[in-house]
Amino acid sequence: MKKDKYRDAVFVIMEECSCPIYDLGDELKVQNFSLVTSSYKASCLHLTAKIADIVTVEKNLSGSPQKTGGQKLQFDCGGCGESKIFFEYKKEKDFATLQMKMLKEAQEQRNSKQLKQHFEALRKLDIFKPLNDSSLIDLALLLEFKTIPQNKIIVKKGSPGNQLYIILKGKVAVTNSNNSKIAELKEGEIFGEMSLLSGEPVSSSIHTIEETQVATLSVKHFRNILKGYHILQFFLLKLLVDRSQTAALRTGNITSGMTGNLADINTADLFQAINLARKTGTVQLSLQDGKAVVFFREGDIVYARYAKYRQKEAVSALLNTKNGHFGYTRGIPKELEKALPIG
Questions:
Q1: Is the pLDDT of residue 107 over 70?
Q2: 69, 270, 286, 317 — which has fewest CB within 10 A?
Q3: Is 0.85 topped by the overall pTM?
Q4: What is the CATH number of domain 104-243?
């Protein structure tokens, strides 16, 4: 079939079935030999190839709905797996129908109102500090804001992770299989990112301790944003590593090079984990009152130093510390390889 040159055209997505990229109402514009979509979204090669075929065959766009007795010119992307979108040709230029314009304007007004209300709170969060105001505005327009009552389950262990949560106000509890609280998260912290990054089910249940305001990001927008804002990808991957290490420490799965904060795991639990794992290695701690070092041989402490304290006194003093940073590395000095445990 003979193909003509590429024609300018505007399409609108009218139905979306589990598409990982595009949403209902998204505009797809062919202009100057390019397919133009939202700036923060990735380009789908299946869709690009399909639209290229449509706009280069004259009869595909030979009439508008008005000229064809109201018959709509509809197409589908061809699909990939269980995902598929259906889109409709509107006209050669500009966003077409009054109905779609009104829906778009209403959504923009809602987003603008929410943005004004929550922008300053988002600006203060560590996760968004690397972004300039323009980028943060683009990202914030994709967020949904919710207020969740006290003692309400937000995510349940084993369920698929499909949202990133940012706590704007309030507090939540993280619980294990026995419904025991293992952590608290407060204003400025996030959760749900581990499942989104790893693709694994939610590993812990989370419920509100008090009425909590959150901003949520869907898995679709989350993936697209990571592609557009690489600085957020680095932040979230670092957070994933930090939280994975904390979880590993709690289960005694100690590895060389592991670091963490004593706010996440206290010294008693840290030392006990190393003891139960029968590790030989060195723990270095940076504390408010100075630095400390503890050497373990097959799980037993053979030497400890903290400020003016040595051996048992140093260990006792360290067990009372709650704030600081630690690092664990494999191995101990050669002169301690035959030292007796301090008891």
A1: no
A2: 69
A3: no
A4: 2.60.120.10
